[in-house]
Amino acid sequence: MKATLRALPxxxxxxxxxxxxxxxxxxxxFYIAFTRWNIIGEPTWVxxxxxxxxxxEPESPFYSQFRSGLANTLIFVGIAVPLLIVVPLLLxxxxxxxxxxxxxxxxxxxxxxxxxxxxxGALAWSLMFNRDFGFxxxxxxxxxxxxxxxxxxWVTIFTLTVWAGIGGNLIIYRSAIANVPEQLREAAQLDGAxxxxxxxxxxxxxxxxxxxxxxxxxxxLSFNVYGQPVMMTEGGPAGTTTxxxxxxxxxxxxxxxxxxxxxxxxxxxxxxxxxxxxxxQFRVMFRSSDD
Amino acid sequence: MVNPTRVVxxxxxxxATALVVxxxxxxxxxxxxxxxxxxxxxxxxxxxxTLVSDFNGQAEACVVDFQPIxxxxxxxxxxxxxxxxxxxxELLLIHGPRVTEFGGAGLLEPLASLQEINxxxxxxxxxxxxxxxxxxxxxxxxxxxxxxxIVTYYNADxxxxxxxxxxxxxxxxxxxELFEVEGQLxxxxxAMPGLFVPAVVESQLFNVGSEFAPGGELDLTQQAMVDxxxxxxALDEAGLIAPEDSDDYQVFNSxxxxxxxxxxxxxxxxxxxxxxxxxxxxxLQADASSPVNMLESHSFVQLxxxxxxxxxxxxxxxxLEYLRLNSxxxxxxxxxxxxxxxxxxxxxxxxxxxxxxNTEEARSTLATGEYIYTSYxxxxxxxxxxxxxxxxxxxxxxxxxxxxxVAGKIAEAEAASxx
Lengths: 291, 419
Fold this sequence. Notes:
The complex is a heterodimer.
Chain A lengths: L1 H32 L1 E2 L7 E2 L3 H8 L4 H36 L3 H12 L6 H12 L5 H6 L11 H27 L3 H9 L4 H12 L1 H16 L3 H6 L11 H10 L6 H31 L1
Antiparallel strand pairs in A: 1-2
Helix pairs in contact in A: 1-13, 2-3, 2-13, 3-7, 3-10, 3-12, 4-7, 5-7, 8-9, 10-13, 12-13
Chain B lengths: L3 H24 L4 E7 L4 H16 L3 E7 L2 H14 L6 E5 H9 L7 H6 L10 H5 L2 E2 L2 E2 L2 E13 H6 L13 H4 L18 H11 L15 H15 L10 H6 L5 E5 L3 H4 L7 E4 L11 E9 L8 H16 L2 H4 L4 E2 L2 H4 L2 H4 L10 H4 L2 E2 L6 H16 L5 H23 L2
Parallel strand pairs in B: 1-2, 1-3, 9-11
Antiparallel strand pairs in B: 3-9, 4-5, 6-7, 6-8, 6-9, 6-10
Helix pairs in contact in B: 9-10, 9-18, 18-19
């Protein structure tokens, strides 16, 4: 009891912030998912009606909206997460081979885009991808309408995502790789392992915890993607890059009376998908630690 | 040792001073402060900021605090302050369709209280169509500031170069007329950019005598919608609409498009472009015999707020009266001012947008959407128009999807509001 009281001043501020900005909104969001609400009046309890509409009623516009939004979100997660893991890992390996000063400079260069707002970054990349006067079409001599044709629309989104997102993971991987025991590498070398073999047999197993941590965090962030498609493609062409967060935002805070119940139900479903995937990832992580 | 006589004398002196101060205060009028939320974040915000400063400079016991907020943030924030009852602004500028939305939800204060303070804030002193945009279910909620919307800018030099000056003989450019330059334009020159296709579609629907909900029932799959979109699709297929990812402003401003359906708010900016010989006509019409210019109002409203002081109401009424009498300057921002006083100002009649109001015939072309779910419809138009016009989704298929989407939203909204 005494120990709990002693701990309270230390964890208290965090608990208060967590309760105000995470716990209460989450619980309230769950409640709203079971109501019909236009944000103005009192929510009306409708049980599972909202979930019924988005999951089992093909004639409802929210059914197709949810499926399409979730499918596009999964496409984004399925491609962005591997890119955000592999690219910084390769960069960490590459700059690990040069001297510390140079490595720090490169690390800083790769980290800076993460400090720039998505909107500002998207504007810069929109200019780069512009069909008429963009850098990319001019350099390659092409005439591609990047943001209005597929698969280029996705390419612009992934480019912005990787550019802005590799810095954080890069720092974690550099630190983890630096902590791999040198004697393990030397032992592998003595056994005749080349650099590729060393990477898979020594480095990768040694950094599996940071790797899994970044995998879980990157996956969670990727499911909440919003800014990149809004800024680069506005969800087009033909809604092929409209992710679920865009639909949720549009329903809850778009033009016209709010449809907050359906939006909250979509949020809950997105959260459940994310929780399921995170649970699988954690299971893999803990199974690895038992080995 | 405390001297009792001195204490009594001091207390008396303090009491007397307090009496004098309070007497003076009672003689002064209570000061009114008006927090003024509005979506004027662009160049028009600078014009309004100037008007507010001018008003504050001459007003007594009244200060207006100009707070521009991007529309995407403004409207969700309104729901928030209404629910909490905290920080409700004393005066609000909103887009016309929101009057019906907020009025229908019972959030707006009827205008009667401000009219009691200043009876000049009445229909007779404003453009009818602008005033009507602030009326919902027979109740007046809003004082209009302006009307704004899409008109057609034309490049006079290009019209001459391609021999189509006759487009302007009746002052009206139609979709059909644009086909006259098919096959005549060099690479990189277009009949028009397609940025504001949704607003063109809305206007043309009224132009051909229909509306989004004929008879009160939403119908986005009606033949008129099919025809309007089909014509625009044909324009694009003929290479007459600038590519989708063009910088449409740049296309027109640099002399690469004959006409440009663009907002009235772009007038002040376009004035600053050297070498562009431009003019203004009605919005692109489908049928020249019955032109319609669909516009949207900026309307002043007050949210219901029991905590608002009488002084704040007086201040708000004074500010609205000041704007009514000094609206001609607002016209320089490119807006069609709503106050009749402006029309009597010779300086205003020289502005390009005066073509929409300078004759009774012109005024009869003006319209604002009264359909309560216009916001849902326009959102669907903005989401889908480029896909239709660029041929990515067949017209009928896209319209059916839009109908389903908007009808679904309406059903939810009506169920939530208990209708």
